[in-house]
Request: fold
Amino acid sequence: MNVIYAKNYQELSEKAALLIGGQVIRKPDSVLGFATGSTPIGTYQELVRLHRESGLDFSRTVTFNLDEYFDCPISDTNSYHYFMHDHLFNHINIKKESVHLPDGMAKDAQAECERYEKMIAEAGGVDLQLLGIGHNGHIGFNEPDDHFVLNTQHITLTDSTINANSRFYKNREDVPKTALSMGIGTIMKAKQILMVISGTDKKVIAEKALFGPVTPQVPASILQFHQNVTVILAID
Ligand code: GLP
Reply:
């Protein structure tokens, strides 16, 4: 694991964007895995800047997002589809048809998970997966459990995640209770992983995930077994 200590959030965002940008320059038709949450927002801003000011070209890039709320239309400003377009896709030259997120309005959640997993495999797998981390150690929406989830699945969110997400909603009852998320197995198949962790409130979980025992109770700890992980930390 390659751990980089950034002096602040801005530096974390710049470094993460440069690593993603480097991947796109090396392989213009890269398959990029993207994440939501507040931590990668700065990374997306920097990618937009690299596109505008340095001509970083996403025209051949393909993307797959980690997850999407279930039963949540893409017009909902809290959908991850909305988030990604708002923060990144609307501001770079990626083709519409190259952007993929699980369909949160699918009638058959299980079939949608299988379709998503198959699409990733058919695209040749993810070259570089960007990840944040939840306070309970979740990646994507893979919550602490007694086993690691293999493939894209319909996941029931824990109270801790629903509480964390409720900051974006007027009422806690409106926060989606389930989501479709790449599994731990899907994430581990990515050729490279880039994790961004920011804020003193993430210090305890970052230590557990990066240096503690590998356990499904801390889903991100599995990354210790991945061969090509870079973690950028700005946690003071
Ligand atoms: C959500 C997303 C995760 C993300 C997490 C942390 O649960 N599904 O992919 O890592 O939020 O978000 P934040 O960076 O806002 O703490």
User: Anything to note?
Assistant: Residues 27 and 61 are 9 Å apart (CA to CA).
